[in-house]
Specification:
The protein is of the alpha/beta class and 315 residues long. It folds into two domains: 200 residues, Formyl transferase, N-terminal domain (Rossmann fold), CATH 3.40.50.170; 93 residues, Formyl transferase, C-terminal domain (Methionyl-tRNA Fmet Formyltransferase, Chain A, domain 2, Roll), CATH 3.10.25.10. 26% of the residues lie in helices and 26% in strands. It contains eight helices and 15 strands. The strands form three sheets. The protein has a seven-stranded mixed β-sheet with strand order 5-2-1-6-7-8-9. Helix 1 packs parallel to helix 6 and helix 5 packs antiparallel against helix 7. The protein starts with 7 loop residues before the first strand and ends in an 11-residue tail after the last helix.
Length: 315
């Protein structure tokens, strides 16, 4: 039996998704000797330097923070060797750990990944699972190796994906689930019952980081596919179409049966939403956004920008 307070731990993470796990480590009582996170970067219209969320929480908890531009830098590796952690926990850090760092802690480097591995390795597993129409996803803790999310699996936690749930909403739920999975991983580690499971390469898939171009809507696709694309890219990078040459972002949608018009045609437009014909079925759009404007409910949007029946989107 290992006393968790004796596990000298380094945490590596950067965005909001990593916060519940970091707080969980604090609450669990491991000896957090350092937090590594990405450097402060300019944000917002004023381009002022802003600290990553993980740095802000670490400072509140009075944990030393380090922000090396590159983990591979020999000075950074030497610093970690000097810290002599028993365990390194990684959650959405934003850099690949080199072999020299993976070899430092005696209990290894454990990553919390937002999918049920081996499905959806890579940077955007939450977005890709929704875009693909998956009904179940989850988190996996794994022992890191030199591959991209290829290490042995440790603990899994599954959850259903809501029919209208967005990537942003699922992100928040999986962040909390990640804390649960990491705490269970620590419990098993301390009790000596932690078991490793090899990933089946035949079942693996990849979820690359998505960009704005991925959000372009093809109205020839079935309504369910368009719906999944929109919610999978909400709030970022956002799904969009064209309205008379202007970019129009769409959110909060629901697929419907039947259309009666060519793909991209507005079938109805009223306070309940804008119904657009798809390749199979139609899509009810309840929130819309023009460039430089706020995302608005359909009723409010239509008061300023009517969309008569027959209007073509995507042109």
């Amino acid at each position: 039996m290992i006393d968790p307070t004796t596990i000298r731990t380094v945490f590596m993470g950067t965005p909001d998704f990593a916060l519940p796990v970091l707080q969980g480590l604090v609450d669990y009582g491991v000896d957090l000797c350092a937090v590594y996170t990405q450097p402060d970067r300019p944000r917002g219209r004023g381009k002022k330097l802003a600290s990553p969320p993980v740095k802000q929480l670490a400072l509140q908890c009075r944990i030393p923070v380090f922000q090396p531009p590159r983990l591979r830098d020999p000075a950074t590796v030497a610093q970690l060797v000097e810290l002599a952690p028993d365990l390194i926990v990684v959650v959405a850090y934003g850099q690949i750990l080199p072999a020299a760092i993976l070899e430092i802690p005696r209990y290894g480097c454990i990553n919390v990944h937002a999918s049920l591995l081996p499905r959806y390795r890579g940077a955007a597993p939450i977005n890709k699972a929704i875009v693909d129409g998956e009904q179940v996803t989850g988190v996996t803790t794994m022992m890191m190796d030199i591959g991209l999310d290829t290490g042995d699996m440790l603990v899994k936690r599954a959850t259903e994906i809501g029919a209208e749930e967005t990537a942003g909403e699922l992100h928040d739920r999986l962040a909390l689930l990640g804390r649960e999975a990491m705490e269970e991983t620590l419990r098993r580690l301390c009790c000596g019952t932690l078991r490793r499971e090899k990933q089946d390469e035949a079942l693996s898939s990849y979820a690359p980081l998505m960009n704005k171009e991925d959000g372009r809507i093809d109205w020839r696709q079935p309504a369910t596919a368009v719906h999944n694309l929109i919610r999978g890219l909400t709030p970022w990078p956002g799904a969009y179409t064209r309205l008379r040459g202007v970019t129009l972002k769409l959110a909060s949608t629901r697929p419907l049966e039947g259309a009666g018009a060519s793909p991209g045609t507005v079938v109805t437009a009223d306070a309940t939403g804008v119904c657009v014909a798809c390749g199979d079925g139609s899509l009810m759009v309840r929130e819309l956004q023009l460039p430089g404007k706020k995302l608005l409910p359909a009723a409010e949007f239509l008061r300023g920008r009517p969309l008569p029946v027959g209007t073509r989107l995507g042109e």
